[in-house]
């Protein structure tokens, strides 16, 4: 990242994560609405969005499904449909609109998602323990 370049992907991912939380909690409230099936669908959609935007193991192993930002934009846009139909989940749906716009912006900028790398083990003093070798006997 050079000076003056802004990465949109992290913002889109966090907004998608927050939208998933709003949709999940709205779906739980929606269970007491007359169309309870929409509440159940939104709970599933919210959990899916939260799992996909917070890199958990099943989603990081799916290759282009996880790394392609155009695919992410399309699936986030599709998640708006069931969420806009229920009043408690409409806030999450509105947030998803902006997440989709940010994913599109990140994709047009050529940004890419890369899986998180394992961190080096550190001791209590903050020193990197991976470079220290055990004594040979």
UniProtKB/TrEMBL annotation:
InterPro entries: Cyt_b558_asu. Residues 111-137 are annotated as: Disordered. The chain crosses the membrane at residues 12-32, 37-54, 74-104. Keywords: Cell membrane, Membrane, Transmembrane, Transmembrane helix. Coiled coil: none annotated. One of its GO terms (molecular function) is heme binding. It comes from the Eukaryota. Belongs to the p22phox family. This is p22-phox.
